[in-house]
């Protein structure tokens, strides 16, 4: 349910592939994603995307009720993704919900299709968000807008997410992966130490 393609030029493409369940994430899927991110230190570029009309609905509901909602695997994944030194593009093929925000916030650039919605209903569900998720979201969009999503539980549109700074570009579905590849072209051609050095300076 997690696809990985490693191209000859060093581009890693990670795909969440459980469209029949809105790409909801099981503990096994989260662990696999974390393991891939932990192995990606040599990647020269990385794309994170999904199949179907939803990027990810967050935790699988059955597993969430059984304890997945508060599992440390979420923080392991977002930390591993953040630690990948190359340029990372989240190509959001649809709605982003719940704990799936963590790995996306840990990317460097976020693209979204126009139909996507963004929400993280932790207060309604009775959970705290992962600490790094709240911190990264606040760094991107400021404390008030983060509170709109986390504390007020609002579902925002792709346009609102763009206006907030939560996503960096809105593109049509048929252009999504092409745009991601275009954004990574210079990083894939550059010396790895230069690409990584620029990213360190930006962070």
From TrEMBL:
Pfam families, A to Z: ECH_1
InterPro entries: ClpP/crotonase-like_dom_sf, Enoyl-CoA_hyd/isom_CS, Enoyl-CoA_hydra/iso
Family under the similarity heading: Belongs to the enoyl-CoA hydratase/isomerase family.
Name used for this protein in its record: Enoyl-CoA hydratase/isomerase family protein
Lineage, highest ranks first: Bacteria, Pseudomonadati, Pseudomonadota, Alphaproteobacteria, Rhodobacterales
């Amino acid at each position: 349910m997690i696809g990985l393609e490693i191209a000859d030029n060093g581009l890693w493409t990670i795909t969440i592939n459980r469209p029949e369940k809105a790409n909801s994430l099981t503990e096994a899927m989260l662990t696999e994603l974390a393991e891939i991110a932990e192995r990606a230190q040599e990647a020269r570029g990385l794309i994170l995307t999904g199949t179907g009309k939803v990027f990810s609905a967050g935790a699988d509901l059955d597993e969430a009720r059984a304890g997945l909602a508060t599992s440390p695997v979420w923080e392991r994944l977002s930390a591993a993704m953040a630690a990948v030194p190359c340029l990372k593009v989240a190509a959001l093929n649809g709605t982003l919900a719940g704990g799936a925000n963590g790995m996306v916030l840990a990317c460097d650039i976020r693209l979204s299709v126009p139909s996507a919605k963004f929400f993280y209903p932790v207060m309604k569900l009775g959970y705290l968000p992962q600490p790094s998720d709240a911190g990264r979201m606040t760094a991107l969009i400021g404390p008030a807008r983060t509170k709109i999503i986390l504390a007020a539980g609002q579902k925002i549109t792709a346009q609102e997410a763009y206006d907030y700074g939560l996503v960096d570009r809105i593109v049509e579905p048929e252009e999504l992966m092409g745009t991601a590849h275009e954004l990574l072209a210079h990083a894939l051609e550059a010396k790895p130490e230069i690409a990584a050095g620029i990213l360190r300076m930006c962070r």
